[in-house]
Amino acid sequence: MSASLLRRGLELLEPSGREKVPPGLQRGRAGPRAAGAARRRKRAPEPGRNKATVKGRVVKSAIEEYHKKKPVNHLRENLQYMLKARLVADKAVTEKVLAQNRGRKSKDQPPEKTEKKKPKGTVFTEEDFRKFEREYFGIP
What we know:
Active regulator of SIRT1
């Protein structure tokens, strides 16, 4: 639907008691070419300082700009934060958490640890071996 048809329809729907606004006070476009003219119109230069001049400009130091943007090393603060709270979780709890985070496939499971058997010490002493030698071999 064109704008003129829409305007005519709105004029028909206007209550009869209202008077039309005089054309000088009407808002909106004055004609079909008014929109293009508004686009072509240049904005009036705003009063203010002239940006072409150097007066009043602060010279920025390249070294200061570099130091502002230089990355900051937070290692020391992070270490102090981490070492401040020395709460160590129970081993059983940590094992449960690790087990939950692992996958369910057999390739994700860690190999089971078998406890190594400690070699038991002999019940015989050196004196017992010497005594056995004397009795068995007959060595005095």
